[in-house]
Amino acid sequence: MTEKDNLPIADSGKGAALPTLSITGNEIKGNDISGDLNVGSTVLKLPSFDITLGSNALRKLIEKHVELAENSPEYLYVIEELQSKIKNCESRKVVGLKEKLKIAGKDLYFDQALVSSQKASKAITRLQHVKSYQIIFNHTLGLILTRFHSHILPLIKTGKDDLIIKSAINCTIIEPLYQEVSLAGGMVSSDLIEGMLYFLTEKCHVEWV
User: Fold this and answer.
1) Number of CB atoms found within 10 A of residue 191's CB
2) Cβ count within 10 A of residue 66
3) Phi first, then psi: what are they for 96, rounded to 5°?
4) Among 26, 9, 27, 6, which Cα is nearest to 18's?
5) pTM higher than the cut 0.70
6) Residues 30-81 pLDDT 10s
7) 113-122, pLDDT tens digit by residue?
8) Tally of CA atoms within 13 A in the half-sphere of 165 that contains its CB
9) C-alpha distances in Å from residue 167, one per residue of 75, 79, 97, 203
10) Residue 9 gets which letter from DSSP?
């Protein structure tokens, strides 16, 4: 993919044009994603993701897990890890998704967050007993947690605007994980990955403040 500059954001429809979003020096070569994300006068230094390497590692994890006996310690460990992510976080007070986003000043996220969170919840409920998806869900949910805390929460705490936060979520969580899981053979969509973020929020594993 060649370098792309000055990718426009459409008018919001409310009379005020949104800032121009541009990606400077951002290239995808051999599924390696890196570069700077420029949103108006703000420059975000993006981490580098080797999608091919990640998908190959995920594929190997899936293959190994499928071969495990369901009473083996390794299999049971993965199930315990997955269950710890899809259940409410016991160490935190459980607050509904709407209230959590309201507290963080992100009320405008709620409608989309609710729809995508419900989609993720249904997918996890239906597929959590399928061996390959036990690994895919555990892997994806874990990376969403670490990347949100490493790359998104600092932006929220320093008061970055919603366009910057949404762009960073897409670049560090949604798009790379969608590509990685898809290359590994998992049938996922980008909105399912996004839904997992809000699913984790609803379960109180992800804190926005």
Assistant:
1) 15
2) 13
3) -60, 160
4) 9
5) yes
6) 444 455 666 666 666 768 789 999 999 999 999 999 999 999 999 999 999 9
7) 999 999 999 9
8) 19
9) 36, 32, 21, 23
10) P
